[in-house]
Write a structure and sequence with these properties.
There is one protein chain. With 1214 residues, the chain is α/β, with parallel strands linked by helices. The chain has 5 domains: 30-66 and 105-281, P-loop containing nucleotide triphosphate hydrolases (Rossmann fold); 287-296 and 367-563, P-loop containing nucleotide triphosphate hydrolases (Rossmann fold); 600-806, no CATH class; 831-985, Ribonuclease iii, N-terminal Endonuclease Domain, Chain A (Orthogonal Bundle); 1005-1213, Ribonuclease III domain (Ribonuclease iii, N-terminal Endonuclease Domain, Chain A), CATH 1.10.1520. The protein has a 7-stranded parallel beta sheet with strand order 9-10-8-11-12-7-13, sandwiched between helices. The longest helix has 26 residues, at 949-974. The chain is elongated, with a radius of gyration of 36 Å.
Length: 1214
């Protein structure tokens, strides 16, 4: 039998300093671990096992297999791994058969167990050592000092990926000398994590070369020697995390993230299908409860006193918002503790002068729970926390409790408040926070004490992952988790058999209720909403007896502190470069069908071709010529097609996408390598559209139609995603027919990259040459955008590479493709998917509206972060906002014509407020169709990502209201009447028809007219003069009378211009907004600015004074008119004409364009034109946007001389 020192890896170094007689008990592998072992031997795998089910043991089993079996694909058998000895100690008769003599080269290869942080190394090193020490293995030589060298004295090392990268770059070790790479916490393999860099630079670039490539005699391929790649094993409990602000579509999003993880590690995700039930028996699922509290305190005086106290002392290190949040979370005492901690001051005594009722003496002490519950200075949330701990402490002997809080200051404040209660002093409450504030040694001490003397621990997220304490029986989540990963990790700390997991949530916060609901939407998280008193009864009825740990129990736990993550560390989020998206159906389903989703791109340059593009990954065959693309060349990014061809393309792509989602296969299109290819040939021709071989489109569409016979047409992509159907797509392949890379005009084609590279000699690799040499201006987020030119009757397909300057670099190169990674690759939904979402929304809301274009509807529900162009819902939202206010104002005035302004304003605010529109959007489930990227926390149809809880909450509420206004703007773009009708259908407007064919402001107009004329004798003369100035003859002169009467003239019957001004303000805003929307391509903020320039008080006052309208106004004697009053008269004039003409927009347009507003309007329009031209010089992309909107820019107006500045048509569209 080998002694322990024989496992030493370096001369004089011992792997374990404990006594040789120490008995190490190693648990035998379970059936589900052996199942995953067999899967891992067959190929690269990412094994998913919950916390506490033996992921490290699985890695040890695979290492054992590779060290003792020459052929690593031949499984050594369950009996071997269940035995207490490895093959080193088995007699020759009992050794499993081998395939020949030992492979000496293999015996010198190294096994790397990679951990994401330095802190995890020691813990995993000890676990691996204990396994092989118990089995008395002589072949395993583990390295203790974590430094990589080329000696033969070790073959297993626990390391961080960055250390391995440094060793490979310094050529201390060669990649072909690696036998196995184990990625612990494999979910970290995202973005530019060292896990990804290692795989990209050394694994993917050394994959076997496709034999067909060798025929091209590339120099860089001739020098490339194939190497034997290491086996890959990934270990994780949470392969992909998602925000708890998810929609029904996030199941699909989670699957896409798993696919990215598979792509990065070149491995398949594995779970124990056959022994799933056995695995579940070893997963500790604590009883989960949610307890509600209220953050709305009836005592506002303490909060106001705190704000005054903060303002008086000018505490710069803490904001007023933080003061308010701390008060609602912890109460007055907790807020003062936080101020004293941050500002390092004793604030309790000085605060009494600001709030004398606060009469607690220092140090504050509580002697009973009744005293705590009756205190007005402790929040409802903290009282519930005290009550829980007190009940648990009374019921359970030697209880162990962990409380997780999000903020460090909250942790410190809670600890101090616990120490104020005399009964909790024996619990020895301690804090555990991240290494940015607390040293590793201090953390280790706290963990050791928690296993022995400390019974109550308050921790930040530093303790959510890695606290391996089996005797913790109560975990309280003080702040609700933001992601599924946080929830699973914190719940995993409750390791006792009878443990409970309690989540506190704010019943007044709708977002927290949504998060709590989503938290319980999986098998492991059945959370029961429990009242506090009921939960206390549960705790009392079930006692949990926990004995103190012995010193032998404590020592192994000290190393577990290394697993703590930093408190300030931000969870890495996935961006998506789709390669394999594997089917995750039942294990016995071997008929996995492979497809490719493709998009057509083309240029009008010398090299015409058809390439394929999808989802943020662009792939090119190596033999093609690569050229840098420049933003100024964007006009080359068009394909012009006829209307029928355009419709055929859209139908083709939508049907193809539906077939793919429904797992249909066209066997004739499969290639020998098992991938699904569809090559679209290009035809040489003079016309841009001739590059597409339309016969292929027609043929393929027919075959798709035949495969679609049994497919229920009523089911949409959205329906499938809601049902959780996986996307059975394996590879996204880009191929070309004519092998030519597209090259726009006006670029330097004097030499190709390959020719330039060959001139460099052999001192640099072709891959590194391309990385250093080329920075391509390209954006592959949106495969294809479309627009329509009314004048030339052409549909234009816009190629996104030419729309937005995005840095693009080569990510890695393998076999037939170079994969490029953009700096803006977050958008997950392709154009086809977005169009399908828009299609579903149209069927739900606009089933009979033929004028609704799917491309426009897609823009109207798309957030600005999801588009490459400035085409998103914001312009529609701006326009829809004015239409909605116009409709609401008329609805109120026509239904209640005799009310005062206070009533009007209150009614208007209630109808158009964000809260009212948000409720409407929620009722209609509008957000199920909202398209955006991963940047915000609210519901999306793409992927969810949180910047911060506060920002997410604000954004989510605002966006829901914006989408309603955007849809109104979309419909109103075609006709204002249609926009008003949609507002009426949405129950925002009640009156069925807006009719003002008679005077509406008084039920007895003739009587009111006599009173006005008797009271103001000159009113008729001034009204006639007003008609002459504006060139409009009033049908009912009373509207002119009302316009000229200031509210200071008390005639009674609400006879003044206020109601007309209320209407005119809405009409003027709508006219100005419509003019900008249909004539200029301005973004939302620019339209706000220019609208304000026209409708502001000073501008309207100048018009009134220029035409002496202010002198026609009747006011109270000696009253000096202000600019606001004069501008109100101008708005009242517009309202008077609108109502008198029965809302005839031709009459309103004449007033604006041909009357007194015309000079101001001309100057205003010319100012916008000048601004746009100056902006175009700075951003050529805006020129492209103008081309896209050419339909609306060619709109004809009555005064043609005023509107001669419409954009000239681009020659490409001629």
């Amino acid at each position: 039998m080998l002694s322990q020192p024989s496992l030493s890896t370096q001369t004089g170094d011992n792997t374990n300093d404990s006594n040789n007689n120490t008995i190490i008990t190693i648990e035998k592998p379970r059936a589900y671990q052996l199942e995953l072992l067999r899967e891992s031997i067959d190929g690269n795998s990412i094994c998913i096992l919950p916390t506490g089910t033996g992921k490290t043991l699985l890695a040890c089993l695979l290492i054992d297999q590779l060290l003792h079996q020459n052929d690593k694909k031949e499984y050594m058998g369950d009996e071997y791994f269940l035995s207490s000895k490895c093959s080193c100690c088995i007699s020759d008769q009992k050794k499993p058969p081998t395939n020949g003599p030992p492979d000496k080269k293999k015996l010198t290869k190294k096994i790397f167990f990679l951990v994401p942080t330095t802190a995890l190394r020691k813990q995993q090193q000890e676990a691996i050592f204990k396994y092989f020490y118990k089995r008395e293995c002589s072949k395993m030589k583990i390295k203790k000092d974590f430094t990589i060298d080329s000696s033969k004295s070790w073959n297993v090392i626990v390391s961080t990926p960055q250390i391995l990268l440094n060793a490979l770059q310094s050529q201390i070790i060669s990649f072909e000398d690696i036998l196995l790479l184990v990625f612990d916490e494999a979910h970290h393999a995202t973005k530019d994590h060292p896990y990804v860099k290692l795989m990209r630079d050394y694994y993917h670039n050394n994959k076997p070369i496709d034999p067909s490539l060798l025929a091209y005699n590339f120099n860089f391929l001739k020098d490339r020697q194939p190497i034997e790649l290491p086996k890959i094993l990934g270990l994780t409990a949470t392969p992909a995390s998602q925000s708890l602000y998810k929609t029904s579509l996030n199941e699909h999003t989670l699957f896409l993230r798993k696919a990215k993880l598979e792509f990065s590690l070149d491995a398949s995700i594995k779970v124990p299908y056959d022994y799933m039930e056995e695995m579940k028996k070893h997963v500790n699922n604590p009883r989960q409860h949610s307890v509600a509290y209220s953050s709305k305190s009836e005592l506002i005086e303490p909060l106001n006193a705190l704000k005054t106290f903060h303002s008086y002392h000018n505490f710069r290190d803490i904001s007023v918002d933080d003061i308010e949040k701390n008060y609602r979370e912890l109460g007055l005492i907790g807020s003062l503790i936080i101020i004293s901690l941050i500002c390092e001051l004793d604030v309790f005594e000085s605060f009494k002068s600001f709030y004398p009722i606060f009469n607690l003496n220092q140090p504050i002490e509580f002697s009973s729970m009744n005293e705590i519950n009756s205190s007005p200075f402790i929040s409802d949330k903290v009282k519930i926390l005290f009550d829980l701990v007190d009940t648990y402490e009374n019921t359970n002997e030697n209880m162990r409790c962990i409380i997780f809080a999000e903020r460090i200051v909250h942790v410190k404040a809670i600890v101090k408040m616990f120490r104020m209660y005399r009964k909790f002093i024996p619990l020895n409450c301690k804090e555990l926070i991240g290494s940015s504030v607390m040293s590793r040694q201090a953390q280790a001490t706290v963990v050791k004490e928690f296993s022995h003397t400390t019974r109550l621990l308050v921790a930040t997220k530093a303790g959510e992952e890695g606290l391996n304490i089996s005797k913790c029986s109560l975990v309280v989540q003080f702040d609700i988790c933001n992601t599924t990963r946080e929830h699973i990790q914190s719940m995993g700390r409750a390791r006792h058999e009878l443990s409970r997991y309690v989540v506190l949530y704010d019943k007044d916060d709708y977002s927290q209720i949504i998060m709590l609901t989503n938290m319980g939407n999986n098998e492991r998280s059945i959370i029961v909403d429990t009242a506090l008193e009921e939960l206390k009864e549960y705790i009392k009825s079930e006692k949990v007896i926990i004995t103190n740990d012995t010193q032998e129990d404590i020592e192994p736990l000290i190393s577990s502190i290394e697993n703590l993550s930093d408190d300030e560390e931000i969870e890495k989020k996935d961006t998506y470069i789709p390669k394999p998206i594997r089917y995750e159906g039942p294990k016995d389903n071997n008929n996995v069908k492979l497809f490719v989703s493709q998009m057509i791109i083309n240029s009008n340059g010398k090299e015409e071709m058809t390439a394929l593009l999808t989802f943020g990954e662009i792939q090119y065959p190596f033999e093609v010529t690569m050229h840098p693309l420049w933003l100024k060349l964007f006009p080359c990014g068009f394909i012009t097609v006829t209307k029928s061809e355009y419709e055929k393309l859209i139908a083709f792509y939508m049907r193809l996408c539906r077939i793919i989602y429904n797992n249909y296969a066209l066997k004739d299109y499969f290639y020998g390598d098992g991938r699904f290819y569809l090559v679209l040939p290009s035809c040489r021709g003079n016309q841009p559209r001739d590059v597409i071989d339309w016969n292929v489109i027609y043929t393929f569409e027919k075959e798709l139609s035949q495969s679609e016979k049994d497919y229920p047409q009523s089911m949409t992509i959205l329906d499938h995603l809601r049902l959780g159907v996986r996307v059975p797509i394996d590879y996204f392949i880009v191929t070309t027919y004519n092998k030519d890379f597209y090259a726009p005009n006006y670029i330097d084609e004097s030499s190709t990259p390959l020719e330039s590279f060959e001139k460099q000699g052999s001192t640099i690799t072709y891959q590194s040459y391309l990385k250093d040499r080329y920075e391509i201006m390209c954006d592959s987020n949106q495969p294809m955008l479309s627009a329509y030119s009314l004048k030339y009757h052409r549909y234009v397909m816009l190629i996104p590479e030419f729309c937005k300057p995005t840095s693009l670099r080569i990510d890695f190169i393998e076999s037939l493709r170079a994969v490029f990674k953009t700096s803006n690759e977050g958008t997950l939904m392709s154009l086809v998917e977005q169009t399908l979402v828009a299609h579903d929304l149209k069927n739900q809301m606009f089933p009979s509206c033929g004028y609704i274009n799917l491309s426009e509807l897609r823009n109207a529900i798309t957030h600005r972060t999801s588009q490459n162009l400035d085409t998103n819902y914001e312009r529609y939202e701006f326009f829809g906002d004015t239409i909605l206010k116009y409709a609401v104002v008329l609805d109120i005035v026509l239904r209640f014509p005799f009310e005062n302004m206070k009533f009007y304003n209150e009614e208007k605010t209630a109808k158009v407020s964000n809260s009212n529109l948000r409720k409407l959007a929620q009722k209609l489930s509008i957000m199920d169709f909202f398209i955006e990227t991963q940047y915000y926390h609210h519901n999306v149809a793409g992927i969810a990502f949180s910047k911060s809880e506060q920002e997410a909450s604000v954004k989510g509420k605002k966006v829901r209201a914006d989408i309603i206004e955007s849809l109104i703007g979309l419909v109103g773009k075609h006709s204002i009447e249609e926009g008003v009708k949609l507002a009426r259908d949405l129950k925002l407007v009640k009156k069925q028809n807006f009719i003002a064919d008679k005077f509406i402001l008084n039920s007895n107009p003739e009587y009111v007219k006599r009173i006005i004329e008797n009271t103001i004798p000159d009113i008729e003369k001034n009204a006639k003069e007003l008609e002459r100035i504006i060139g409009y003859k009033f049908k009912n002169i009373l509207y002119a009378y009302y316009t000229l009467i200031h509210p200071s003239v008390d005639i009674g019957f609400n006879v003044n211009y206020e109601t007309l001004e209320f209407v005119g303000d809405a009409v003027l805003d709508l006219y100005v907004s419509r003019t900008m929307f249909h004539n200029f391509y301005l973004d939302q903020s620019e339209m706000h600015t220019f609208r304000s320039n026209f409708v502001r008080n000073t501008a309207l006052e100048k018009i009134a004074k220029d035409f002496r309208i202010d002198q026609l106004l009747f006011v109270k004697k000696d009253l000096k008119l202000k600019a606001k009053s004069i501008s109100d008269v101008m708005e009242a004039l517009i309202g008077a004409v609108a109502l008198d003409s029965n809302l005839d927009w031709d009459k309103i347009t004449d007033l604006m364009e041909l009357s007194i507003f015309s000079p101001k309007l001309r100057d205003w329009l010319e100012g916008i034109e000048t601004y746009e031209n100056e902006k175009l010089l700075k951003s050529p992309k805006q020129e492209l946007n103008k081309v896209i909107n050419i339909k609306v820019r060619l709109k004809k107006y009555k005064n043609k001389d005023m509107f001669k500045f419409c954009l000239p048509v681009d020659p490409l569209l001629a």
